[in-house]
Amino acid sequence: MTDLSIAKKLLPYKPKHKVRFVTAASLFDGHDASINIMRRILQATGAEVIHLGHNRSVQEIVNAALQEDVQGIAITSYQGGHVEFFKYMIDLLRAGGGENIQVFGGGGGVIVPSEIDELHAYGVTRVYSPQDGQSMGLQGMINEVVAKSDFDLSALAPQDPDAVLNALKAGDRRKLAQAITALENGAYPEALRKKILHAAAGLKVPTLGITGTGGAGKSSLTDELVRRFRLDQGDTVKLAIISIDPSRKRTGGALLGDRIRMNAIEHPNIYMRSLATRETGSELSAALPEVIAACKLAGFDLVIVETSGIGQGNAAIVPLVDVSLYVMTPEFGAASQLEKIDMLDFADFVAINKFDRKGAEDALRDVRKQYQRNHEAFTQSPDEMPVFGTMAARFNDDGVTGLYQAIVPKLQALGLKFKRGKLPLVNVRQSSNQRAIVPAQRVRYLAEIAEAVRSYHAHTAKQAEIARQRQALRTAKALFQAQGKAAGDFDEMISWKNAQLDARATKLLDMWPKTVELYAQDEYVVKIRDKEIRTRLTNTSLSGSRIRKVSLPTYADDGEVLRFLMKENIPGAFPFTAGVFAFKRENEDPTRMFAGEGDAFRTNRRFKKVSEGMPAKRLSTAFDSVTLYGCDPDARPDIYGKVGNSGVSIATVDDMKVLFDGFELCAPTTSVSLTINGPAPIILSMFFNTAMDQQVEKFRSDNGREPTEDEIQKIRVWVLANVRGTVQADILKEDQGQNTCIFSTEFALKMMGDIQEFFVHNHIGNFYSVSISGYHIAEAGANPISQLAFTLANGFTYVETYLARGMHIDDFAPNLSFFFSNGMDPEYSVIGRVARRIWAVAMKNKYGGNERSQKLKYHIQTSGRSLHAQEMAFNDIRTTLQALIAIYDNCNSLHTNAYDEAITTPTEESVRRAMAIQLIINREWGLAMNENPNQGSFIIEELTDLVEEAVLKEFEAIAARGGVLGAMETGYQRGKIQEESLYYEHKKHDGSFPIVGVNTFRNPQGDAQIEIELARSTEEEKQSQLTRLRDFQGRNAAASGPMLEHLKHTVIENGNVFAVLMDAVRVCSLGQITTALYEVGGQYRRSM
């Protein structure tokens, strides 16, 4: 056995020049945890980083790199298609004059050595493998990245004064970017800088300066103003955006974090450049006047400058711009604080952003009055002051439109060329129609739940003590009587204790002897609607031992019995700590059959193979990343490379029909899990249509004729009542963890509510409308407590959201399911039981839900984070242990990861091995005959209480930030997950956290290059998908246009979008629907 590796304590490399990077995750890739770690270390090593976040196309990354004039690009690519992605990037860089830009990448083992060599040969500077990370460490890799990019860019800019001015006037964007670099680096002499300023002085190009407090939403507001310029003027206005962020004094690095927030800048008429403050000590860059002048010379109609966050006394932007906008939030403290804000003296416009916050109306009134006082405008009404209430986070916010329409005339007066606008005029000066997702008065819901759970436990402890005292009195009475002593007073005392015991506790204790007697039999018999159901209660081992299915405690103390019954209870009884069902189903393992690769035909064959001979078909579908992000397959290289890789390509309802061909979707033994989030409503509509068409086809073959309209309606009702399964759909965890959000959060949550409302109206009781997932939170790096706390908090957020829409708790709570990851940490042994207990107590005592609503059902997937590319065969050992604790904890279904998922889509052989793990535990492992092995274990009970209390504390922390949505807005969950991820990665790399085969017990022969079958989509499958898509769109060309207009109108009118999607998917492809919904629902705005 080898010792724990001693990590090299590397110091950060000290760059000789100002080094700038663009960092991002590749197209259709939400795995941004690793690139977030890398960009943080880059910043700490002195680099200025323009971080673009997840799901970035090659064109977006290259545009950013060329406009920002960086030395390097660093990309994580984890979802396949990486060879096409990186090659396309090199091609576009060369075509755009960026051949000097260094390209770095990594993919956690997914990019195999032969592909790394191919990419190096093509021009990629370096792709790092897990082995590189192991030998170099995180800092070592970053040191190399920075060192290879540490060269002076100023020399590449035009130098001759006339050449500089001519290049700028010619509108050459690449030369503009290089000139800005030279200006920022102080490489141009004073005379040339003055010449640029003088040349621009005569141009009538207005400059809008946007400044405000940090975190007020300046970037989002800037993006929304840019969007309105584009829509209003039909993309005719040429805009330059200069965004400034602070440099870190200690390291010299900077997070240039505004570009990530921009959704509206990808157009040839728009140029954006991020600057760092460097040594200025203010909110501006020293080169800003010359940079503004350079942009004016380059032919832009309007220059927008966004400063870094400012304090009360800062107003440095004012003399450099023609019009200034001050952005603040309603949370400025007492009204007297407004007297200290310099910008209220100088700003032409004030925006109180995040206008949905508490106290916004009061803030608007106070700021207007202060503005009126500062400007001595007492002849005007405070309502006429240029102070606006805005919600930049809300799509199509009328407050932002009102602000935009007030700014435009001022800019026109300063020379902005403007034609009649297309946007309808609004007559509001603050956001209206505020439909809060969670009403303001309910934002402390998580703190209330924490209080409800703690109160329940305090009540349990009191009742247990009363039961113990009552039993002691009864025992004492019996002893007195046995000795012939007077025992008359005991009756009064016992009656007193009886009165202190509540009805439920009394009933539980009274029924306990009968429960013990029933579970001591060989069979458990219950009658349901005159039908007798018999369950065998014992199994016999080869040695002849009788192993009980449910083992009960042998407590003689009433206090201990009651404590057990109220905190634990038998499986299937409140608070469901041991499980939501009394017994597992006979002859049905909780095994899920997971498949997704290539096209629908190949995945259908895989489903048939993995479910062969299994009585229950539990089919879980992995979709390719093109589908996950709501796009259609396309020949563009960065899309084409991902079609059918890391999942199945589904673009139309026709594909969905092929996917499930041969499976009886309405059979009680069939359930389907659709692992998709952003486009979940569209994919679910396709699935329901597939199930309906299957039954219509069955009707045709059974009856030899077409069904009537009435018969089709009856089939539809029957299908919706009988189809079983779940759709992931959980958009909250996507924002917090691995990100496949595509629509604005508000619109995504509205569509989830529409799905649930459709379920209620159509009596869909066997399908889960959302699988609230902690798996993706864990995969992004969260520890088990954060995973559990964030996931349950998200679940309760859906509860509050649906209640706010007027739904009844018992109509939707049974349609919610959960999905957790099981890793190697001790807490994973109890996350299911903790989740069940918190949910049950909250549902019963806080929300008044019935027994069905109180039952939390959850799926477990073994950890993907503990699948390592080194010594991959060892992964099966980890997966076996994780599967064992899931089965011990009575999970409702289980998916065991294949050992080779560390580097590829699992192969047929590895999937078979993964399924064998479950089968061996369920059918060979002796203790699995018992269904409550965790109960009675001291450490399990201690861990349950410990983890539960940690979760409740996390609930309170989230509540203090305005609930889940408020915490998301401040990036609380993402920040915490990233910190926990970084902590784990550091401990893994320095060897202090032992991982066998990775940083300890290393193979003395080194990592053998094992030849593994790489499951990739074939050229034929990709081409077939493009052809099938064209055929579908061609066949439905006449119907799709009007249907998409109907869909958009439904969104505008706030109708049920899912109900319309049920019809839309029959004639429109996934990409067509997504694009239409972007126009009326808005795109997701990324954050760090």
Account of the 3D structure:
The protein is α/β, with parallel strands linked by helices. 47% of the residues lie in helices and 11% in strands. It contains 39 helices and 26 strands. The strands form six sheets. The protein has a seven-stranded parallel β-sheet, with helices on both faces. Strands 5-4-3-1-2-8 form a six-stranded parallel β-sheet, sandwiched between helices. Strands 18-19-20-21-22 form a five-stranded parallel β-sheet, with helices on one face. Strand 4, helix 4 and strand 5 form a beta-alpha-beta unit. The longest helix has 38 residues, at 445-482. The radius of gyration is 32 Å and the shape is globular.
Please bin the fraction of helical residues. Answer: 40-55%
Tell me the strand order in the biggest sheet. Answer: 9-7-10-6-11-12-13
Q: Low-confidence spans: pLDDT under 50, at least 5 residues? A: 1-7
**Cα radius of gyration in angstroms:** 32 Å
Q: Tell me, rounded to a whole number, the average pLDDT.
A: 93
Give a quick account of the main beta sheet: strands, pairing sense, barrel closure: 7 strands, parallel
Name the shape in a single word. globular
Number of DSSP strands? Answer: 26
Q: Helix- and strand-based class?
A: alpha/beta
Q: What fraction of the residues are assigned to beta strands by DSSP? A: 5-15%
